[in-house]
Amino acid sequence: MLLRSKLTAWGLVALVVVAAAFELRADSPADGVPGGGFGKWRETPLGRLISGHLGRALVLRSEMEVSAEQREKIHAIMKSHRQEAAQAIRPVVEQRRKLRELVTAEKPDEAAIRAAGDALGKAIGDAAVKLSQIAGELRGVLTPEQIEKLEKFHDANEGAVDKFFDKLVSE
């Protein structure tokens, strides 16, 4: 149960980070060069947070020592649930877009923003329930040692997010 809640929490954190970073586009100037990428985004607190997550994910991938048999089982599970995962995630994407449009509107409507936020929350909850079922199947493929490494990975990411927000409010 602890792992399931951490997986759900990680998904929510990832969604928040992606939503916060939606303004970082590949067509933004990098060092004055149009179309040159994200510029110096890695030097920003958000950039460091994202880079840290990616770095920890790469380390986790090498440390997990997933066997060829496990990889095949994981692939089969993911393939068998591809449609239902997409159906669960699509409303989250749609509701996030709707909320972003309302928040960035020229004349924001507080009631509409709150309603869209509630709809996004429900979509996230529905997706989390479906994805937790898939995560349960995936967990059955992993060894206790691999699950422990995954939990440490999530703890490190949660700690980095906490540090990010602590630093954000203290500056």
Going by CATH, the architecture of the domain at 2-16 and 68-154 would be Up-down Bundle
Question: Biggest β-sheet: count, sense, barrel?
Answer: none
What's the total count of β strands? 0
Instruction: Identify low-pLDDT runs.
Output: 1-9, 17-31
CATH topology of the domain at 2-16 and 68-154: Four Helix Bundle (Hemerythrin (Met), subunit A)
Span from first to last CA?
36 Å
The CATH C-level name of the domain at 2-16 and 68-154 is Mainly Alpha
Mean pLDDT, to the nearest integer, reads: 81
Tally of contiguous helical segments: 6
Shape: flat
Tell me roughly what share of residues is in helical segments.
Answer: over 70%
Structural class, please?
mainly alpha
Nearest-angstrom radius of gyration?
A: 18 Å
Question: Approximately what portion of the residues adopt beta-strand conformation?
Answer: under 5%
Order of helices and strands: HHHHHH
Structure description:
There is one protein chain. The chain contains six helices and no strands. It is an all-alpha fold and 171 residues long. It has a domain at 2-16 and 68-154: Four Helix Bundle (Hemerythrin (Met), subunit A). The longest helix has 30 residues, at 110-139. Residues 1-9 and 17-31 have low confidence and may be disordered.
Short characterization:
With 171 residues, this protein is mainly alpha-helical.
Task: Please outline the helices and strands.
Elements (H helix, E strand, L loop, with lengths): L1 H19 L24 H20 L3 H13 L1 H22 L6 H30 L4 H27 L1
Helix pairs in contact: 1-5, 1-6, 2-6, 4-5
